[in-house]
Design a protein that fits this description.
mainly alpha, about 290 residues
Length: about 290
């Protein structure tokens, strides 16, 4: 961890130490009780696992991979202000691409589903990390290194946007000014993303900017007549078992791959959207939304 990331960590910890207890107290005071200790402990545990995997990947692969492409960079000099603004926009767009793939390809959904599996929605839900995402996330940052952004800056910017993303996980921030909600992801937008309601599935993939969702047709407003129900469409059978939370979709995927089917069909189970089935026993998001209408 470099000095800037250490400073960022020291800055973020007090924020979490203040706002999370405040949200816990406020939720109990208002009798909403959006926290349970079991879920909080699981969220933190999964975050620690993710951090361990991320540290190893960054140490042995992440920097080496990005540095390799950085030596072939297209641009050597940026205006300092433009450099950081373009890095923020570029990193956020590539995160949107990664996030879109995580939701639309079952192999990657098996990794990402961990983050969506909690039936609760609070600030610690943001810590409920997809444990094995660091194995492949650095691949998405290659274009930034190739364009001329330093690997150390790419990873630093990702850390900043992650903090913003964690703060979105709250049920208590309702409506913000329209201009903010037009450009930036708000807690309301992200509540939609974490909902298992059929109209909300696979919507609002952005981390910082909501404009990517508006451009590519994955944007949906939170509606007063469609209260978000958090979690996944098929709840985890043993929700207090972290190992099962991480592996449950992999187990189902392996069962589908064991079916006596042609290789081409098996590959569809692997790389088609979650819910795809050759015989209709399960349905994709698009199929569910088409029936819902």
């Amino acid at each position: 961890m470099n000095l800037r990331e250490q400073i960022l960590l020291l800055f973020s910890i007090p924020i979490y130490a203040i706002i999370i207890p405040f949200e816990i107290l406020f939720s109990n005071f208002t009798h909403r009780k959006v926290y349970s200790w079991k879920e909080v402990v699981i969220n933190i545990y999964l975050n620690l696992l993710n951090s361990g995997v991320d540290f190893l990947m960054r140490l042995f692969i992440g920097y080496a991979l990005l540095n390799y492409f950085y030596q072939f960079r297209l641009v050597n000099h940026f205006n300092p202000i433009a450099y950081w603004l373009l890095l923020l926009v570029g990193e956020d767009f590539l995160f949107w691409v990664e996030h879109f793939v995580d939701h639309r390809v079952r192999f990657f959904w098996a990794v990402h589903v961990t983050h969506h599996s909690s039936p609760e929605y609070n600030l610690t839900t943001g810590f409920r990390s997809s444990v094995f995402m660091p194995v492949y996330k650095y691949l998405y940052f290659i274009p930034l290194a190739f364009l001329g952004f330093k690997p150390i800056d790419i990873i630093f910017m990702y850390s900043i946007t992650q903090i913003y993303g964690i703060l979105l996980h709250t049920a208590y921030v309702k409506n913000l000014p329209a201009w903010i909600g037009y450009l930036f992801v708000t807690p309301s937008h992200h509540r939609v993303h974490h909902s298992s309601n059929i109209p909300y599935l696979d919507q609002n993939m952005g981390m910082v900017f909501i404009i990517w969702d508006r451009i590519f047709g994955t944007f949906t407003e939170e509606k007063s007549n469609e209260v978000p129900k958090f979690g996944i469409t098929k709840p985890v059978e043993t929700p207090n078992n972290p190992l099962f939370i991480i592996t449950h979709e992999w187990k189902e995927l392996i069962q589908d791959l064991k079916r006596d089917l042609p290789i081409k069909t098996k590959m569809k189970y692997l790389f088609f959207p979650p819910g795809w089935s050759h015989d209709g026993h399960s349905k994709t998001t698009k199929e569910l939304q088409k029936e819902y209408k």
